[in-house]
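Figure 6 in text form: structure in, sequence out.
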């Protein structure tokens, strides 16, 4: 669950648009479309993944008409506050830094681990070069760890950095890294210890859209109560995934 670090100055843009849930407006669901299995673009050119399935179910339960919009990660919060879409559902962890500029629903995924992946399990994680996606708390964590941080705009580029020798390891969400490690045929391995960061995933919503936030809160809670959220998490992340 990626954790964006942005200064409040970057987020000066605000939107006067306030959506009243249940009045027939189309809710625009903002996502990155580049962070499988949370969200990605499938072969048909459509947003797909865990968050697409979950978001569609939440909209159905809330009786909202929703459409999906993609946006690059490093500007995803400014474009929410500017009114270019109405929610962020993009593997975004709930953090105090973000909560200063936007609101969050309750979490729809429990807090999960970040992890290191490398070509060798004994790589130097504190004195070496570690790749992370730019503007994430993982990048901030690496910068404070003593390692040399190299940042990339997309998660795929961080993986490529290991393979081409630009970095000794990558630090990212373990749920993102797990299928890559499993499909690498032993080329990529886990290194070091997992690190717990963030407060779980939530929908980011403008502070002015309190009614919309509570509408999604109710839908998330209904899925927690009837077990369908846990079932969906297990479907996408496997039986070992953390559930509610």
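Output sequence:
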């Amino acid at each position: 669950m990626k954790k964006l670090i942005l200064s409040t100055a970057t987020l000066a843009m605000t939107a006067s648009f306030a959506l009243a849930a249940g009045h027939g407006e189309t809710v625009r669901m903002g996502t990155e479309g580049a962070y499988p299995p949370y969200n990605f673009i499938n072969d048909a050119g459509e947003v797909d993944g865990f968050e697409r399935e979950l978001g569609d179910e939440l909209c159905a339960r809330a009786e909202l008409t929703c459409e999906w919009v993609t946006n690059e990660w490093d500007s995803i919060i400014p474009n929410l506050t500017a009114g270019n879409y109405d929610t962020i559902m993009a593997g975004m962890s709930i953090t105090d830094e973000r909560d200063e500029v936007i609101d969050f629903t309750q979490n729809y995924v429990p807090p999960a681990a970040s992890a290191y992946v490398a070509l060798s399990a004994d790589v130097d994680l504190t004195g070496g070069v570690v790749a992370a996606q730019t503007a994430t708390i993982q990048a901030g964590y690496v910068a404070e760890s003593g390692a040399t941080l190299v940042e990339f705009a997309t998660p795929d580029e961080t993986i490529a950095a290991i393979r081409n020798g630009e970095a000794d390891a990558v630090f990212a969400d373990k749920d993102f890294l797990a299928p890559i490690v499993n499909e690498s045929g032993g080329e990529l391995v886990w290194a070091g210890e997992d690190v717990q960061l963030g407060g779980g995933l939530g929908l980011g919503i403008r502070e002015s859209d309190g009614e919309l936030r509570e509408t999604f809160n109710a839908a998330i809670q209904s899925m927690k109560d009837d077990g369908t959220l846990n079932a969906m998490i297990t479907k996408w992340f496997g039986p070992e995934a953390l559930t509610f």
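Caption detail: Residues 113-196 form a domain with the D-Maltodextrin-Binding Protein; domain 2 fold (CATH 3.40.190.10).
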